[in-house]
Amino acid sequence: MISIRNLSVEFSAKTLLNDVSYVINRRDRIALVGKNGAGKSTMLKIIAGLQRPSSGSIDIPSGVSIGYLPQHMTTEDSCSVIDEARKAFGHIKEMQQQLNALNAELAERTDYDSEAYAELIDRVTTLTERLMMEDGSAGEAEIEKTLIGLGFNREDFDRPTQEFSGGWRMRIELAKILLQRPDVLLLDEPTNHLDIESIQWLENFLTAKAGAVVLVSHDRAFIDNVTNRTIEISLGRIYDYNVNYSHYVVLHRERIEQQMRAYQNQQKQIADTEEFIERFRYKATKAVQVQSRMKQLAKIERIEVDEVDTSHLNLRFPPAPRSGDYPIIAEALSKSYDRHQVFSDAAFTIKRGEKVAFVGKNGEGKSTLVKCIMNEIPYDGTLKIGHNVKIGYFAQNQAQLLDESITVFDTIDRVAVGDIRTKIRDILGAFMFGGEASDKKVKVLSGGEKTRLAMIRLLLEPVNLLILDEPTNHLDMATKDILKQAIKDFDGTVIVVSHDREFLDGLIEKVYEFGGGKVRECLGGIYEFLEKKKLSTLHELERSSTAAAPPKPMPAPDSPRKLTYEEKKERDRAINRAEKRVKEAEEEITRIEADIAAIEAALASGEQQDPDIYERHAALGKQLDNAMSIWELASMELEEIKSK
Q1: Strands 328-337 and 340-350
Q2: What is the chain's percent helix, strand, coil content, to nearest 5?
Q3: Residue in 101, 118, 1 with CA at minimum distance from that of residue 61
Q4: Which of 6, 8, 85, 490 is the most buried (most CB within 10 A)?
Q5: What sections of 162-195 are H helices per DSSP?
Q6: How many CB atoms lie within 10 A of CB 5?
Q7: How many helices and strands (H and E) does the chain possess?
Q8: CB count, 10 Å around CB of 299?
Q9: Which residues pair with 348 in a beta bridge?
Q10: What is the tens place of the pLDDT at every residue in 190-200?
Q11: Average pLDDT of 337-356?
Q12: How does pLDDT run across 61-99, given as a tens digit for each residue?
C-alpha cells in the first residue's frame, strides 16, 4: 500500500537512515524498534509528510489516508471535549465526493472479473461503511465510545479542553485520529499518557478496527498484543521481521551472535593479512604477494556489529538500612479538593520488603496518595510512616530539581559511594549517556534526558522505601529491563505507580486499585489483578443485563441462507484472490528452497566458498520461515472463505 524506496536521511553530516526500503501492507501491524535516536520518530514524520528525506521516496496511492499522533503536539483550547472530538468528522463531505466519483467510475466499468474492479468494489464498500458509521447518531455513538474508552467520563464531555492537562488533551487528539479511521495509523508513544484500562481498550481497537498500524512504543506488552511485524532500525539500516516483538527479540539475538562471529572471523583475517604484509614488506621476492594482500585488505567491506549489548550490566541499589516492620500504615485516610472527593476511608498496611503497585485511571488519586505519604499536601485520617524509614521518591517533576550548572557525570559522581564509583560511566552508558553525552551540562538536556538522569541518581541513594511515580515513560526497553532487575534485587520496600503491565509483571506482589473514591487491595501480581477485574466486570454486566430484561428463549438454529447472485460473485472473487495469494506464497517457497539447495550443493562440493555463504544460508532459512508463515496464513484465509 505504501512503498518506502531507497530512503536516506542525514543530519549535520551524520547518516541517520541509509538507503532504506520496505512496504507497508493494508493489514500490517508494525512495531518500529531501535535505540533512542535511531530514527524511529523521524521515519514516522517522513511517512506522514511532515519531513523530507535527504534522498529516496515515499509512494502513497491516491485515496490512502494517514493519521499521525506525535509524542508532543500543540492542542487547541477553543471548545469543549465533545466538540473537539466532532472535528474528526469534518472530512465527511470530502468522503461523500470521493464515493460519488467512485460510483460514477463503477457505472462505466465492464471488466467485472478483473482485480482492479474488485479493488474498486472494496473501496466503495469501505467508504459506504464509513459514511454510514460516521453520519448522524452513529457518529455520535462512536465519539462517545471512543472518549469513554480513552478514559473520559460523560461529565467531561461538555468541559472546556483548557481545563485538562496536556496528557488528557493528547487523549482527545488520539480520539480524533481514531474516529477518522485512516487507512494507515502512525502512533509515536501512544501509551505514555494512558492508564492500564485505556491501553487495553486501545489494544482492542487497533486489533479489531484499525487498518495498517505503524507504532513506536516502549510498552512491551502493548506492542506484543497489537503488532505482527517488527522493523528494527540500527546504524542507519533496517531489519524486517515478520513476527511480533517477543519473537523478534529471539531472532535479533541470533542475528547479533551471527554478526559477532562474522566480525571476529573477519578481524582474524585482517590481522593475519596485516601480519603477512608487515613481515614481508621489504622482501623483494614477496613484493607481488604483499601488493596482492594490500589490495585484498583495501577491498574488504568491514563488518559492523549493530548494537553493543549492555544487558550484562548488573545495576544494584545500595543495601537498604533496616526500617520498622510496617513502613506505612493508613487508617480512614481521605483527601478532597473543595467538593471533589479524591478518595475516602482508605485503610491499608504495607509491610517491610513488600513491592506493591498503585493502579487505576488517571485522576483517581494515585499520585495524590503518594504526595500524602511524602507529606507534601494535607489530608484527613491517619497516615503513619514507620521507624527509620528513609524514602527515595521519583516524581514526574523530579528532573526540575537537578543542578543545571554541572555535568551529567558530576551529577552522579556526587551521590555515588563505594565500588559503584568505578562503574559510573557504565551506568551512564546503560541509561543512554555514553561517551561525550556524560560530559554535557544538565541545562542542555531534553526533558526526557533529565528524567533518566534523575532516575540514575535515585538508584544510587541509600534508602529503604522507594516510591516511583511513572518511572518508565522515558526509558527504552533495554533500560527498563535493567531498572526492573535492580528493583527486584532491592531489599527494601517499593511502591510503583505505573501503567506498564510488562514492567510490573513479576515485580510486584500486591495491587492497590484506585477508582470511585476508594482504594482497594488485591493480592497477587498485575495479571492476576487484571484477570480478577475482568471477571468482576463480566459478572456486573451479567447482573445488569439480567435485571434489565427477562431471559429470552433460545432461538432455533437458522437454516443456511442462500447467497444472492452479487454475494456469490463477490465470494468467488474473494476465493480467486485468496487462491492467488496461496499460489504466490508457494512459488516464493519453491524459489527460496532452490536457492538453499544451491548453497548446500556448493558447500558439499568441498570447493572454497565466499566467507559470507553461511550468512546467506542463514538469511535464506529465515526467509523460508517467513514464506511458510505467509503460506499458512493465506491457506487458512482461503479455507475460511470457502467454509462460509
Answers
A1: antiparallel
A2: 50, 20, 30
A3: 1
A4: 85
A5: 166-179
A6: 14
A7: 19, 18
A8: 7
A9: 330
A10: 888 788 888 88
A11: 89
A12: 887 889 998 877 666 667 888 888 888 877 676 777 888
pLDDT at 185 exceeding the cut of 70: yes
Question: For 199-305, where are the E strands, in sequence order?
Answer: 212-216, 229-234, 237-241
Cα separation of 172 and 166, whole Å?
10
According to DSSP, residue 330 is labeled E
- What is the three-class DSSP state of 214? strand
| Three cell numbers written together for 372 | 500524602
Enter the C-alpha cell of residue 421.
564509583
CB 638 within 8 A of CB 578: yes
Give the integer Cα–Cα distance in Å for 507 and 514: 19
Report which secondary-structure segment, H or E, holds 371: helix 366-373
Q: Which amino acid is at 60?
A: I
Cα(225)–Cα(243) distance, integer angstroms: 12
Residue linked to cell 482492542: 204
- Scan for cell 464531555, then name that residue: 157
CB of 10 closer than 8 Å to CB of 54: yes
- Going by C-alpha positions, the residue among 81, 44, 99, 85 that lies closest to residue 66 is 44
Closest residue by Cα to residue 615 from 129, 114, 255, 196: 255
Amino acid in the structure at residue 240? D
- Distances in Å between the Cα of 414 and the Cα atoms of 409, 456, 463 are 9, 12, 16
Q: Is beta strand 229-234 parallel, antiparallel or unpaired with respect to 391-394?
A: unpaired
Cell 443456511 belongs to 560
- Contact of 33 with 248, CB cutoff 8 Å: yes
Residue 214 grid coordinates: 505503524
Residue count of the chain, please give it.
Answer: 644
3-state secondary structure of 474: coil
Place of cell 486499585: 513
Residue whose entry in the numeric block shows the C-alpha cell 613481515: 279
Cα dist from 10 to 54, 347, 386, whole Å: 6, 57, 56
* The pLDDT of residue 32 is above 90: yes
Helix 115-134 and helix 565-604: axis angle, to 10°? 120
Reduced to 3 states (helix: H, G, I; strand: E, B; else coil), residue 572 is helix
340 conformational bin, left if phi > 0, alpha if psi -120 to 50, beta if neither? beta
DSSP H helices in 549-564: none
Strands in 229-234's sheet, in edge-to-edge order, are 66-69, 184-188, 212-216, 29-33, 229-234, 237-241
- Residues 409, 54: Cα–Cα separation, whole Å: 35
AA identity, residue 370: V
Place of cell 474508552: 149
The dihedral formed by the CA atoms of 208, 210, 211 and 212, expressed in degrees to the nearest 10: -110
Residue that has been written with the C-alpha cell 480467486 in this structure: 576
